[in-house]
Amino acid sequence: AMDGAPPPTSPTGLSAYVAVSQLLGLALLATTGAWLGRYRGGVAWHSPLQFNAHPLCMVLGMVFLQGDALLVYRVFRHEAKRSTKALHALLHGLALLIALVGIIAVFESHRAKGIPDMYSLHSWCGMATFVLYLLQWFLGCGFFLFPGASFSLRGCYKPQHIFFGITLFILSITSCLLGITEMLLFKISDSYSHFVPEGILANTLGVLLVAFGLVVGYVLTREEWKRPPLAEELALSMDFKTLTEEDSPGGGS
């Protein structure tokens, strides 16, 4: 940038929507904690309360952190691309680790209580989402974070990476909604239809999940809010393409 040039600013409205997304994310985490603490006895490992780590970890990892990882390229619009990529991968990796803890918690809890595994629609959708999310993370790191992939391969895979990133975020929220409903039907099936406080609080959590997903999705799909390539990135991209595709002047034809 030239000396005296004004600092780059975010597009109108972007900061407000990102702030709303974070408020919704914190609200859904607080609501999850309130539900588990007030009505389900809290969270503890190697105890009858171990199962409660599952919904907490899934909401934190597969929804909140995954959503924030998707927003990285909108929030850090003027930072170095390499740093933004690393943060994007780090947040996704942290989400995977936290989700893995949640999956271990539910399997160990089921084993201790003699409950069968993987029979419900929630478990099918949730496990499929986690496995695909893990695959998406490995492919993303391989294509975009680590050197080796050619410019053409990156270009071909990028649309799929973006599509499946948003799709997996939607599937994660859907799996959480299925899990909330399943848990309510197991725990308070006799009183759920009477608008008991626990049911209302859990339903509120579901609404917050949907709202968080809608706000994040809106930010991601606004074309004018996409991260613009910096001048040095355009130059590096052209150099990288020239080297990998052997199109430089005097190169082999």
Q: Key terms for this structure?
A:
73% helix; heme; Four Helix Bundle (Hemerythrin (Met), subunit A); globular; mainly alpha; 253 residues
Map the helices and strands.
Elements: H1 14-39, H2 53-75, H3 81-113, H4 121-145, H5 151-188, H6 197-221, H7 231-245
Structure description:
- It is a single chain.
- This protein has 253 residues and is mainly α.
- It has a single domain (15-227), classed as Up-down Bundle (Four Helix Bundle (Hemerythrin (Met), subunit A)), CATH 1.20.120.1770.
- Helix content is 73%, strand content 0%.
- The chain has seven helices and no strands.
- It has helices at residues 14-39, 53-75, 81-113, 121-145, 151-188, 197-221, 231-245.
- The model is unreliable at 247-253 (pLDDT under 50).
Derived from helix and strand composition plus strand pairing, the structural class reads mainly alpha
Distance between the termini: 37 Å
Quote the beta fraction: under 5%
Radius of gyration: 22 Å
Q: Any idea what the CATH architecture is?
A: Up-down Bundle
- At CATH level 3, the topology is Four Helix Bundle (Hemerythrin (Met), subunit A)
Oligomer: single chain
Cofactor: heme b
Catalytic activity: monodehydro-L-ascorbate radical(out) + L-ascorbate(in) = monodehydro-L-ascorbate radical(in) + L-ascorbate(out)
Subcellular location: Cytoplasmic vesicle, Secretory vesicle, Chromaffin granule membrane
Pfam family, one: Cytochrom_B561
